[in-house]
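Action item from last week, closing it out:
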Amino acid sequence: MAMLKFTRDHEWVLIDGDTGVVGITDYAQRQLGDIVFVELPEIGRKVIKGEDTAVVESVKAASEIYSPVDGEVLEINRALNEEPALINSAPVSDGWFFKLGIHDATQLDELMDEADYKTFLEGLE
């Protein structure tokens, strides 16, 4: 069964077995505004938890996207190269950034579930 987890930096990861799909939350895309460019990682790149792995640029600013866990980039969402606005219109579905082969599943325990993330967001307002 797939499981959705969140970071304090507003990334989400959809975990299915030892693979995770990574994107940014609806909250993050609203804070950024209209997204105009995405820099995606190289397939095969090994990343560590918290490492900046992708970059998203909006009309307001550029922001790093951090890896939620240690792993290896297995796939990137090439559709974002042509249509970065997918991140605005569908941040938790079609607007994903990359798929990661998870190296240390115990790190997932440090991430928030949806209820904890909603509580975290309430504390930001």
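Closing note: The CA atoms of residues 96 and 106 lie 23 Å apart.
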